[in-house]
Amino acid sequence: MSEQNIQASGYLNVPAKTVTADGISYAYREMGPKGGVPVVFLIHLAGTMDNWDPRIIDPIAAKHHVITFSNRGVGASTGSVPDSIESMADDASTFIHALGYQKVDLFGFSLGGMIAQSLVLKHPSLVRKLVLAGTGPAGGEGIQKIIGTTYYDMLRATLTRQDPKEFLFFNRNAAGKPAARAFINRLKERTTNREAPIKLQAFQTQLKAIRRWGLSPSADLGVITQPALIANGDNDRMVPSVLSSDMHRRIPGSELVIYPDSGHGGIFQFHDRFVPAVLEFLGR
Question: Does the entry feature the keyword Protein biosynthesis, yes or no (predicted)?
Fold first, then answer.
């Protein structure tokens, strides 16, 4: 199938649906073959469904039933943003059950990876496999500094008229800058029925929840029995890369992939290497 045909039938054209549970209307999109265990994607800080890289979603959805959704109070989902990762995990569980699923695979990036960890610890029977990218554990050293890092890079982006993700997700070097621009351009491929950007108060609430996660007591990741694939770049400024190695040591039997000369968005910079690794992991 040519790239043009993939794009025509791909994530950028998937319509949004809604499902209501506990008085909240969750906006979601789904694509790919149904019948197996779906892969539920959990998005990053300030992200809506439009922030998923189609070069990751489309090839995974070619083989698996993929579901993306916006957290409570974000994008087209109603309600207000929870002030803790644990509450966000409860919402994700509520959303998954509202769709009628008893078992899912989780793909969590950044904030989404924190939600995935909380979800598997609170609702272990719901999760079959875990992909944890650009994320860190509760109590992870350095996570609490995320507010300062984020606002600093938002200021740098404003002064240079660039997207903050170019600074937050990618190294500012010969490899990172073009990868950043390519990623931002891919996010713009969807031109219709886009979600509204996150509101400032919701964004600030998410930031505080992440900081609280970083300052909270360490969780026992040794109880996680699900297969886990952990991935990051080697120079993550938002969630220190060393925390990926920490999670790998603590989650029994987990696998770790670290991409060279890349940052928080290493999986996007190296999507051509990351996607085959995910497909092999999920298909096992």
Answer: no
